[in-house]
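Title: Prediction job returns without error message
Component: structure pipeline
Severity: low
Priority: P3
Assignee: unassigned

Description:
Job completed but the reporter wants confirmation the result is attached to the right record. Sequence as submitted:
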Amino acid sequence: MKYFTCILVFFFTSFVISQEKFSKEISLVTDNDLYVSSIRDRYYTSGIFINYRYLSQKKKKHLEKRIFEWQLGHEMFTPYVSTVPNIFFHDRPFAGYLYGGFNIKRIYKNQQIFNTSLRLGFIGPNAFGKELQEFIHNIYGFKNAIGWEYQIKNALALNLGAQFLKRVVKTEKDNFDISWVNQVNIGTVYTNVSSGFYSRFGFKPLQSLANSIAFGTNINDENTRFKREIESFIYLKSTVQYALYDATLQGSFLNTSSGVTKEIIPLVFNLEFGILFTANRFNFGYSFLYNTSKSKDLRYDYGHKYGRISINYLLR
């Protein structure tokens, strides 16, 4: 009887919370190749992103919502292993990228989203890639990395980005949809353009683009027509990217003294498959990501795999 009562309390609490409105959200997202293999530790080996998003108080007639977001991010890259003392065996450079960012997300009433972003930070030793990898390796009991003295040299990191999403397919029962996704980045770290599709397969009826954890649009206040809803779905995202510049591989054009640099492969295919779901004020996610090789002369030239874990928490 007590067990049955606990179940009722849980579902009642979930229902009540789903009717409440939360106008702010904090999140932690981590990328790591250790999430898909305990022995793989190479190329894009770690990403850590802390986000805080909130609704704009100014309303516009053509928008459902406007969301502001602050982000602190760190990305880390290594050769085929993290212990390469001989510079001649570095099949890609060691590199760290640390930045702070600000995004504005505009959610339109016609199921479209336009997002703009600004990132400012550092690439090179000032990004503390070596120190962070040593910290992570100490946690897992791995050997300390060797070769960071040859990493991409210090340079200012300034990047601008724009993203456009539009839902193009939706089933009558709202259990499946497809959105067209486009991204452009220009700056001293990344310059590229990508396009592809984001598909959701719902265990429950899917929420619209304007109110879903899939797109970071699930926050509301008294002026929005949406409420907190329970979500649970798997998703598949596939994109094709054309890169013009990547300072983590080529070194920054602001500092050309890097000892190890590599030539990029412009055309890259990206695949992401995962699950996202809500639990009271929390949102959780896990995904598997794959990309084809981004540079030439890699020892492992069949692409790169890594995992992503996300934890979000809603605030009033």
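Comment from assignee: result matches the submitted record. The two ends are 34 Å apart (CA to CA).
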